Known about the structure:
alpha/beta, 10 helices, three-stranded antiparallel beta sheet, TIM Barrel, 14 strands, eight-stranded parallel barrel, globular, 2 domains
Amino acid sequence: MPSLSFTAALGLLSLLPAAQAGWNQNSNNNIVVYWGQNSGSVGQNRLSYYCQNAPDVDVINISFMVGITNLNLNLANVGNNCTSFPQAPNLLNCPQVAADIVECQQTYGKTIMMSLFGSTYSESGFSSSSAAVSAAQEIWAMYGPVQSGNSTPRPFGNAVVDGFDFDLEDPIENNMEPFAAELKTLMNANTSKKFYLSAAPQCPYPDVSDQSFLNGQVAFDWVNVQFYNNGCGVSHYPTDFNWATWDNWAKTVSANKNAKVLIGTPANVGGANAGSFPTDSQLSGAINLAKGSSSFGGVMLWDMAQLFSNTGYLAKIVADLGGSSSPPPPPPPSTTLATVTRTSTASTGPTSSPPSGGNGGSVPQWGQCGGNGYTGPTQCQAPFKCVVESEWWSSCQ
């Protein structure tokens, strides 16, 4: 199909619902969801599936980069469609995710963050301040704008994330402040677009893992406070839910006095966070309490796979935040993705016979061509074939 003119493209973008505007620093109804760890055993689809089918989600945190000194990217079952870099065997090379990031940003208006560390991170920070600065520069070269002449491996090719999220669980973290400060400096110095920095502390204050850089030295844009798995969480509202403590942090301690605080909560009663799943009235009450604070930025959910197995829960949260849920948009009439460099043509992903005939169609590489409920085109452009990846997703590969 012919590409859309710039004017026509602007016209189509103007029809997108406001829920697809990505992160809004001036809003109190942002919704942030983690993706990449296939939480529980409910099954995890590819990133672009959720971008298309969750118009009310503003930010998706890709999780996790679990090794920084010894490069290690863990995306659970998503890694089946990735290969390894020869110089870094635990670092995934994921052209499918690269294409999805661009589609999520350009077609669905999502803010895509790269989440670092996670619960399995065990390096305990950096040996020195200079080592922390060097590590931040390497992470920026891996996921930020492409740097001409830089040979640092890029897991997502030419795709550029919108910022970084810190999810630290280890109480011993050395030289994290210079690491965070250098990343923030690099992002501020680049004017190609707005970049963000967020963190995911536990709700007990001060969080033992994050206090070194949340103590007013680094300007975070928002914090996804984990108000679960702790006695100060949403499931303990109204008696012990410590929203006021984090509201005070944002207004008096944070280096960014406009920083937002999000209420983090499990996305389903099942999974590892079952004991922290709040009742509907507890969640509504906590959100209503927080809405009275200028620091309130919305809700964070763990995680996407759990959320999509809990029918109606996202709509409930949207309603609690004061909005109305948006239906998933139909597939766009044509999709033009930015060129993504693929460093390997090998694939370890699942294969099967295509749902319908192979070549000569309209769906480009990595585009959706099948799946339960899908009604779009099924013919792949040559030489690609439609490959079944799950009940919900087939793509041209």
